[in-house]
Amino acid sequence: MLQMGSSRPWPDAMEVLTGQREMDASGLLDYFKPLSDWLQRENSRTNEPLDWLKGSKAGRTPDQTKRLDKRRSQRQT
């Protein structure tokens, strides 16, 4: 595979290695489904805001922001 370098498109290299030209993440999604389900339940139970911008307050209610700030300060002490 490394011999191909940048001279061939990545789907060609993947086909040589795996026999397939298409990627499929369904196996990973199936494997991590129990964790994903638990995280969704836990986030719902704790009313955890689901934003990916660390420190961002976008999309949160003032009450959610207050609780999150309180939890963060408790972790730091």
UniProtKB/TrEMBL annotation:
Keyword Glycoprotein on entry: yes
Key words, A-Z: Disulfide bond, Glycoprotein, Signal
Transmembrane spans: none
Organism: Timema podura
Full protein name: Angiotensin-converting enzyme
InterPro entries registered for this protein in UniProt: Peptidase_M2
Extent of Basic residues compositional bias: 68-77
Region of interest (Disordered), ranges: 43-77
Family: Belongs to the peptidase M2 family.
